[in-house]
Specification:
Radius of gyration: 22 Å
Strand order of the largest sheet: 4-5-13-10-11-12
Distance between the termini: 64 Å
Number of strands: 13
Bound molecules: pyridoxal-5'-phosphate
CATH topology of one domain: Rossmann fold
Shape: globular
Mean pLDDT: 95
Number of helices: 17
Length: about 450
Amino acid sequence: MEEKPRYRAWFESLRNPAERHGLDEVVYTDADGGLLQVVHDMDELRKTSAEEWRELFDRRAHSSQWPYGSGVWGKKEWVLPEVSPENVVSMYEGNTNLFWAERYGREIGLEDLWLKLCGNTHTGSFKDLGMTVLVSQVKEMRARGGQIPAVACASTGDTSAALAAYAAAAEIPAIVFLPRGKISTAQLIQPVANGAMVFALDTDFDGCMNIVKEVAEKDGIYLANSMNSLRIEGQKTVGIEIVQQFDWEVPDWIIIPGGNLGNVSALAKGLDMLLDLGLVDRKPRIVCAQAQHANPLYRAYQRGFETFEPIHARPTLASAIQIGNPVSYEKAVDALKRYDGIVEEASESELAEACAEADRTGLFNCPHTGVALAAMKKLIARGDIRSQDRVVVVSTAHGLKFVDFKVAYHEMRIEGIDSSFPNPAIELPADYQTVRDTMLREIETRFGA
Ligand SMILES: *Cc1c(COP(=O)(O)O)cnc(C)c1O
């Protein structure tokens, strides 16, 4: 067996490393209300050489040996070493495709542009990576007699979809709180279909967050939001996986959209482990991209991270990142400082046009990926990113979850956005002559010399 139970991990206060808790304790913050993080016994992990880790991870990827074929559980020793394999709740998330966006790169002046399609996974967003870990830990705790009646989250859509699916697979009751009318139909129907208890509340994400925290505190419901640092452990595999997919070579840039800022923190945490355990010896630079309508991190960055002020996030097409008071702010700032980070923002028009422009080259981007693409274009224009640099854009969700936005764009119905690349369907009677005339005219205008 490959199982190596000697590895250990625990919760530790971010500000006070002396405060520790077991991963089977129901605890989300430290004694002062600050963030916890999962810390691993690095000395124990170091007893295995970098070469052995690389070899083990490569061998497991895509295998059918439960649960190691999952991108997350293939790194089980680095993620959640003590959970027993029979309590792992996995849908073989991770190991998503990383591909060379040759045409799009060429059009915007990059030779070596790659997209990491985290949306090509069970529920259509990277949230699966963290949720498999959290729900597995809950299943383990319940199996050992822990009293956890249900798991709950506040969500801008994708978190609730992931929670509902994993909880359903494990037969654990799930409760989700969504801001009414602020998420896409595809996102709403996922927890509904998976049998979760779905509350659509008259508030925004931050308002839902307050409710779920209260329910966790007063009613013993297990909190599945990313302030629960178990999620970060799964999400951190994205950075490890990117490097692994380049045969353990580190790219120059990784660009990722940020809302609650768990994901950018997770990305850096995974890279930290690669460096710490000697699997790589250099760092990429990290760019966190925010929607201008929900940009508290960008504003803090402009002030050299001297001060942080929560903002009231305004509606954005990138609805999953409409967050004004990000839970993982502190972790994100640390992460950006370690990785010579940059924060950039994108307006509604910039993100929509970036999505559409890239879609024309065969991609199918969600609006959050559009935020990252728009930020990248600004960095290219400024000369921060150079044409030969190897750049990876983390695409966080599948475009099919956000078709309402794409339809509106191509029908030129989004207020304040010009739709520079519209391509609406041409509606005609089923008459050969009319079709032919239109077709030839369109070929001439679109592709003519
Ligand atoms: C959750 C989410 C994000 C933002 O991740 P954070 O950890 O909240 O910063 C970005 N894109 C999509 C599609 C998401 O679902």
